[in-house]
Structures are given as structure tokens and as C-alpha cells.
């Protein structure tokens, strides 16, 4: 899971096969071509070279424009994570970001803070990082590159007891705040486990191939729910009481008013994949996705209105900052959205 784009690798090796001795005279006559080919090779190397999980992250001036996959608000601060071990913190509602130095270059996929000081991050190579000072310093507490499967989400019930889930049914559990982890299976299949959330005393996991799991005993046993859909679910969002939103591939969105016992499909008007849910301070629900997709609901998820970000950004997570502004992360890095851009 640490490689780069396959087509880039093929092109790079094609360049390697060129007999440069035969090209030497040609390059001497065409210096501009030599510069162009050199630049192409450097770009392709960035795509092909593996990112080692055990190396420290590289401090990048443009890290806030790199691929970011998850974010969380902790009090007045925001924390975002993404490719090449990037962890960013904003103390001014997303106007500026500071990159933290962390002991990995693996792509980081999810972040979870249980309070203002204690947080964890997961990613490729089954990397798990922990902070005890609000995200300023991070320690590598787990890594399993040989598994060749990324972890995709992390959730803690309390300061000691937590779960990390991921591709191919990976399910890890810790009882000591993340110092040690033990794996087990929660089902007979090895579908990707994409997101875990809590709704009251119950836990839920949105998974691949239409699978949704619920636990009524703090994650020890899991029941398979049936939304009657075979596509992947990328996110699940607790609305209020026993109400849930479940969303994923090709714009599919379902709601449940009874903690997942029954589901009703909600029309979205889009076939873009949906990735993140958010409740604003005024009660508005926002579900975001790829291709600039933004869905808003004023009736607790019974119906949604489709909006389109004009730049068609691919959103992976949206947050409401302490000042009421909307902060979004995704393939573009991080940006702030006006309420007008989501139809308010």
C-alpha cells in the first residue's frame, strides 16, 4: 500500500530503458529537450518512489495544499491529516496551518481525539500514531507494513479502550491507550471497514459491499444490518437520538430512525460518491462528496437539496470552525467555504 500510481511506474521504467549514450549527441543539439525530459523524470519519481512508514515526515511549505483525508475540531483548534505523513494544526479557524513533525511518511487516513490532549491517527502500513499534548508531538505506537493493507479509521471509547479498522476486514483493539494492539475478525468476510461512530451506547461501522455493523456491547459482538444495498458505504453519521445517516458510492444515502433496524433510501440527485456528514450550529445537516457535491437538509435528513461547489472539489471531510465558518479538506488540501456556497 506504499506504492504510487501504476501508470506512472510504467512510464518511469520506459524512460529507464532508453539508451542515454545514443541520445547524448541529440541532447547536446537540443538542450531544451534535455531539461524537459529531466523534469519529467523527477515528477515521475515522486509518483513511483515508495513512502516508507518508518521515516519521519518531510516538512513541506505547501502541505496545506496536499491531499488531506480527514480532520477534526478539538475545542478552538483544527487538526487535519493526509498524504506523506502530513499532520496540520490550525489555531485560527482554518485561516493558517502549521505542519507537525511526525515519525512516518505513510499516508494518514483518519484522526480521532477523545479530549483536548489525547488523540490518535491511523494510515497506510497500518501505522498508528498517538499524541498526549493536543497534536504538537506524535509517537509511533504501531506499524505493520507487511500486512499491505491500510487502516482507515480509529475510535476510542475512553482514554484506554479503542479500535482501529481498515481494509480487508482489519480490526484492531487496544486496552491501554494505544500502547499495544490485538487483531480479530468481526465477520466471516474480509470487506473493507471504512468508518466507525458511536450513537449513544451503540457502535456502528460503515463497510464495503453494503455491509453495516452494529455493536450493543462496546464492540465485543457485532450484528450485521441490512440497508438493502450492495455498494460500498464510506460514511455513517449520528444525527440525533436513534437517527442515523449512511452514505457512500454513487450518491446513495439512507436514513434510519431506529438505530439501524430499518432503513429508508433518500433521494440525492447525484451519482457522486458521498464521504462526510456534518451538523452545523443552526441544525442544518451537510453531506459532502466528490466532484464538489454538497447536500443540505433542514429536516434532520428526511430530504436533501443538492448544491455544487463551482470548483468541483473532491471533499473528504468538512468541519464547522469555532467562528462558524466551514472548513473542508480533500484532494485540494484545505479550504474555507462560505455558507452561500452550500446554499444557505
CATH superfamily of the largest domain: YVTN repeat-like/Quinoprotein amine dehydrogenase
CATH-derived architecture of the largest domain? 7 Propeller
CATH classification, class level of the largest domain: Mainly Beta
- Report the total helices: 3
Q: SSE order, as H and E?
A: HHHEEEEEEEEEEEEEEEEEEEEEEEEEEE
> What is the terminal-to-terminal distance?
40 Å
Strand order of the biggest β-sheet:
1-2-3-4
Short structural description:
This protein has 344 residues and is mainly beta. The protein contains 3 helices and 27 strands. It has 2 domains: 6-48, no CATH class; 63-342, YVTN repeat-like/Quinoprotein amine dehydrogenase (Methylamine Dehydrogenase, Chain H, 7 Propeller).
Explain what the structure shows.
The longest helix is centred in the first third of the chain and has 18 residues, at 31-48. The strands form 7 sheets. Strands 1-2-3-4 form a 4-stranded antiparallel sheet, with no helix packed on it. By secondary structure, the chain is mostly beta strands. It is 11% helix and 38% strand. A hairpin with a 7-residue loop joins strand 19 and strand 20 (264-266). Residues 1-27 and 29-51 have low confidence and may be disordered. It has 3 helices and 27 strands. Helix 1 (6-16) packs across helix 3. The two termini are 40 Å apart. The chain has helices at 6-16, 20-29, 31-48; strands spanning 68-74, 77-82, 87-90, 98-99, 108-113, 119-123, 128-131, 139-142, 151-156, 162-166, 171-174, 182-183, 193-199, 202-207, 212-215, 223-225, 233-240, 243-248, 253-256, 264-266, 274-279, 285-289, 293-297, 305-308, 315-320, 326-330, 333-337. The protein has 2 domains: 6-48, no CATH class; 63-342, Methylamine Dehydrogenase, Chain H (7 Propeller).
Amino acid at each position: 500500500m506504499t506504492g504510487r500510481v501504476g501508470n506512472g511506474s510504467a512510464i518511469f521504467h520506459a524512460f529507464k530503458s532508453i539508451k542515454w549514450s545514443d541520445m547524448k549527441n541529440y541532447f547536446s543539439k537540443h538542450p531544451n529537450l534535455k531539461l524537459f525530459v529531466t523534469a519529467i523524470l523527477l515528477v515521475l519519481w515522486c509518483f513511483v518512489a515508495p513512502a516508507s512508514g518508518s521515516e519521519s515526515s518531510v516538512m513541506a511549505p505547501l502541505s496545506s495544499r496536499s491531499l488531506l483525508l480527514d480532520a477534526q475540531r478539538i475545542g478552538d483548534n483544527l487538526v487535519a491529516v493526509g498524504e506523506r505523513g502530513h499532520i496540520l494544526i490550525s489555531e485560527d479557524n482554518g485561516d493558517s496551518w502549521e505542519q507537525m513533525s511526525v515519525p512516518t511518511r505513510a499516508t494518514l487516513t483518519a484522526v480521532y481525539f477523545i479530549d483536548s490532549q489525547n488523540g490518535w491517527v491511523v494510515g497506510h502500513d497500518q501505522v498508528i500514531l498517538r499524541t498526549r499534548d493536543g497534536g504538537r508531538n506524535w509517537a509511533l505506537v504501531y506499524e505493520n507494513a507487511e500486512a499491505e493493507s491500510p487502516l482507515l479509521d480509529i475510535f476510542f471509547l475512553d482514554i484506554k479502550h479503542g479500535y482501529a479498522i481498515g481494509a480487508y476486514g482489519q480490526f484492531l483493539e487496544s486496552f491501554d491507550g494505544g500502547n499495544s494492539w490485538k487483531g480479530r475478525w468481526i465477520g466471516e468476510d474480509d470487506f473493507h471497514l471504512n468508518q466507525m461512530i458511536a450513537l449513544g451506547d451503540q457502535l456502528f461501522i460503515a463497510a464495503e459491499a453494503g455491509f453495516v455493523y452494529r455493536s450493543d456491547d462496546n464492540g465485543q459482538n457485532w450484528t450485521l444490518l441490512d440497508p438493502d444495498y450492495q455498494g460500498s458505504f464510506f460514511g455513517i453519521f449520528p444525527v440525533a437520538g436513534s437517527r442515523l445517516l449512511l452514505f457512500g458510492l454513487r450518491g446513495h444515502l439512507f436514513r434510519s430512525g431506529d438505530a439501524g433496524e430499518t432503513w429508508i433510501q433518500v433521494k440525492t440527485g447525484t451519482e457522486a460518491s458521498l464521504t462526510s456528514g456534518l451538523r452545523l450550529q443552526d441544525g442544518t445537516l451537510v453531506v459532502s462528496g466528490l466532484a464538489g457535491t454538497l447536500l443540505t437538509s433542514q429536516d434532520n435528513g428526511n430530504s436533501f437539496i443538492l448544491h455544487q461547489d463551482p470548483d468541483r472539489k473532491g471533499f473528504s471531510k468538512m468541519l464547522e470552525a469555532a467562528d462558524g465558518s466551514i472548513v473542508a479538506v480533500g484532494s485540494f488540501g484545505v479550504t474555507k467555504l462560505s455558507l452561500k456556497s452550500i446554499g444557505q
